[in-house]
Amino acid sequence: MLKGLWSKAYILLTFTALSWAGNAIVARGARELVPPVALAFWRWSIALVLILPFAWPHLRRDKSVILANRRILVLLGILGIGAFNTLLYTGLQDTTALNAMLVQSAQPALILLIGAAIMGDRPGWRQFFGAAVALAGVITIIGRGDPSILLHLRLNTGDLIVGVAVIFWSFYSVILRRRPPLHSLSLFAVTLLIGVLIIAPFYAWEILSGRRIIAEFDSWLAIGYVSIFPSLIAYLFFNRGIELIGSAATGMYMNVLPLLGAGLAIVFLGEELYLFHVAGMALIVGGILWAGRGQAPLAHVPAVSADLSDRP
C-alpha cells in the first residue's frame, strides 16, 4: 500500500500542502505557549539534528564549493530559514492564520515581479496584469476590505509582518536560482545551520525579555509538528511529486495551499470567513490563473526542483 502511495503524486502533494498549511495553524494555535522566535529556533535546530547524519557525507564532499559560495549561502540562510518563518510566527501573534495564509498566496505574483526586477526575466503583459490583480487581492485582505484603513495607515501589525515575511521569501525564491552546485542535502543542512545561527541572538533576546516556552505537552507537540512535518516529511513528498509530474505541474497544484490553510483555520481555530476574505481570494486566484494562461505560472512553492532547501 505504501509503495502504491509513493507513486501517487497528487496524494503526496496534498499531504505536503496540508503539512505546510498546518505550520501556520499550529503557530497560531500555540502562540500563548511557544513564543514565535523560540518556535522558529527549535523547529530548525531539531530539523538540522535530524538531517545532519544523512547530509554529513555530502557536506564533506561539497566543502570546497560551500566555502567558495559562502556569501550567497549566507544570504539564502538568512532569507529562507532565518527570516521567513520567524517573521511569519511573529505576525501570527497579532493576525489570524486565515489572513496569514491568504497573504502568503501573493508569493507567485511577487516572485514574478522580483524576478523581472533583479534577474532580468521578461514576463509578458498578461503576467504583469495577473500579478497586479493578485496583489490587489492581498491588499484587500490586509485592508480588511476597508480602503480607509489603507488611507490612514491603520493596518494590522500582524498582517504587515506576514507581508514582509512573504517579500523576504519571494526574494529567496528568486535568488535560489543562483544557488551553487551542491547536493540537495548539503544545501539544506548549510542553510539550516546559517538560519539557526541568525535566529539564536533573537531567541536569546526573547528569553531575556521574559518570553519563554510554557512547559506543557501541547508546547512540545507544536514544536515536534513544525520540526518534522513541514520541515522534513513535506519536503520529501514535494520532491517526489516533482519527480512524478514535473516542477511546473507541481507548482500549479501547490497553489491550493492557501485554500487548504484557510479551511483548516476555520475548522480547527474557529476563525471566521468574511466577505473581504472571499473577495481578496477571488482576486488572488484570478490573478494567478490569468498570469498562467499560455505559460506555467511561477510556483507558490519552494523555488527548487529537487532539493530540500526551503519552505514555510
Helices and strands in order:
Elements: H1 2-5, H2 9-29, H3 36-61, H4 63-68, H5 70-91, H6 97-104, H7 107-118, H8 125-142, H9 147-151, H10 157-175, H11 184-208, H12 217-245, H13 247-253, H14 257-269, H15 275-292
Helix pairs in contact: 2-6, 2-12, 2-14, 3-5, 3-11, 3-12, 5-10, 5-11, 6-8, 6-10, 6-14, 7-8, 7-10, 8-15, 12-13
Verbal overview:
The protein has 312 residues and is mainly alpha-helical. The chain has one domain. It has 15 helices and no strands. It has helices spanning 2-5, 9-29, 36-61, 63-68, 70-91, 97-104, 107-118, 125-142, 147-151, 157-175, 184-208, 217-245, 247-253, 257-269, 275-292. The longest helix is centred in the C-terminal third of the chain and has 29 residues, at 217-245. The radius of gyration is 19 Å and the shape is globular. The chain starts with a helix and ends in a 20-residue tail after the last helix.
